Amino acid sequence: MQKYIFILGRNPELSQKELFSYLEARKISYTMEDCSDIACVLEIKNISPEKCIKDLGGIQKIALVIDSLDSLYMGTKNKVRYAISQYGEETKEEDYLRLQLKAYFKKEKIKATIKKSHREQQEYLNPSEAQNLIEIIQYKNYLAKTLAVFNPRDYKFRDTKRPAQRPLHTVSIRLAKILINLSGAKPRDTVLDPFCGIGTIIQEAMLMGMEVIGIDKEKFCIEASKQNLDWIRKEYNCAESYRLIHSDARQVAKYLTSVDCVATEPYLGPFLKKYPTEKEARRIVQELFPLYQEVLYNLIKITKKRIVFITPRFRTTAKKDMPINLAPLLEKKGLSFEGPFLYSSPTSRILREIWVIKK
Ligand SMILES: C[S@@+](CC[C@H](N)C(=O)[O-])C[C@H]1O[C@@H](n2cnc3c(N)ncnc32)[C@H](O)[C@@H]1O
């Protein structure tokens, strides 16, 4: 058993749920030693941190807890860069650790230079800063060595270089991964997105080894998804199959009899240039609710594991929030659910709520 620290992203509750759901879907047993808004410390038998960090949208770093600095550097270079990242409250031992590290590198005859965070008053390195160096994490009483870091360039590459683009109507790659993992999907499962747009969720699921199905009522979205999925297959040498269906999501049960999981961001209403008035928001909610209800009733018939479904939460000009409450209809169907979990993004005006519906 090894002990790992998982540094959580900016929606910590969601990141925790995602992490546990990811491990449970793969039957990876773990013992939780500590969990906070900053990090989760888990004892796990066998994982590949490099693979986990690629699969998880809500985890920033994975570090191995170490008892001493003895095995800190296993490489062969005699010149290295290193950093100390302090998460949570500062401990008094930081200066002592600095001295210990100096002594360690001296003993190993390695010329080591320390790197500091670019941001003022931030005691830890951002994922992009933490690439290609030795990072020692201090968190509570733990000392850990970073093994894998979220790679923003990889996300950017997939997001901006795929052939079909539609930025205003597309979930981020980060959110796509969170939804897939919350759905409990594991490699070789079938994942359906009944509002697939240009295919972000299904492209990420395909990269994680799942068979995918996308539905969209717009022909150009189906064509865009096809281009993107073909590009992913070629670029990442990925052999998983996909199926695209040009249809209304309400007709899903006509085309499919069974899928393992659903992960989707449905149509969230008309694009809003400014905050809506309460009356406008109420009108959009009244328009969306019957669509969501009909689609969900049909998805329930064909889904084996979980349905992860986003609903919008409208913030009105009067700063009042208007959510869409799915709870009564799920309870009526006797379904249990978790959430809704609020997901906010710095680049989006719309607030999203994520429902994890269990069969
Ligand atoms: C928010 S976008 C989906 C984003 C997408 N999940 C992604 O990964 O990029 C919503 C999509 O739903 C489609 N749509 C709207 N109403 C629909 C319906 N009744 N049935 C199927 N697709 C629909 C729209 O064409 C649009 O592409």
Overview of this protein structure:
With 359 residues, this protein is an alpha/beta fold. It folds into 2 domains: 2-150, VC0802-like (2-Layer Sandwich), CATH 3.30.2130; 154-358, Vaccinia Virus protein VP39 (Rossmann fold). 32% of the residues lie in helices and 28% in strands. The chain contains 10 helices and 16 strands. The chain has helices at residues 12-25, 49-55, 94-107, 152-161, 173-182, 200-207, 219-235, 252-255, 278-302, 327-332, and strands at residues 2-8, 30-35, 39-44, 59-65, 79-87, 111-114, 134-139, 142-149, 190-193, 211-216, 242-246, 261-264, 306-315, 321-322, 336-343, 351-358. Strands 2-3-1-4-8-7-5-6 form an 8-stranded mixed beta sheet. Helix 6 (200-207) links the parallel strand 9 (190-193) and strand 10. Helix 1 crosses helix 5 (173-182), helix 5 crosses helix 6 (200-207) and helix 6 runs parallel beside helix 7. The longest helix has 25 residues, at 278-302. The radius of gyration is 22 Å and the shape is elongated. The chain binds S-adenosylmethionine. Residues 169-171, 176, 193, 195-198, 200-201, 215-218, 221, 248-250, 265, 267-268, 291 line the site of S-adenosylmethionine (SAM). S-adenosylmethionine is lined by residues 169-171, 176, 193, 195-198, 200-201, 215-218, 221, 248-250, 265, 267-268, 291.
How is this fold's topology laid out?
Blueprint: E1 2-8, H1 12-25, E2 30-35, E3 39-44, H2 49-55, E4 59-65, E5 79-87, H3 94-107, E6 111-114, E7 134-139, E8 142-149, H4 152-161, H5 173-182, E9 190-193, H6 200-207, E10 211-216, H7 219-235, E11 242-246, H8 252-255, E12 261-264, H9 278-302, E13 306-315, E14 321-322, H10 327-332, E15 336-343, E16 351-358
Helix pairs in contact: 1-5, 5-6, 6-7
Bound molecules: S-adenosylmethionine.
S-adenosylmethionine is lined by residues 169-171, 176, 193, 195-198, 200-201, 215-218, 221, 248-250, 265, 267-268, 291.
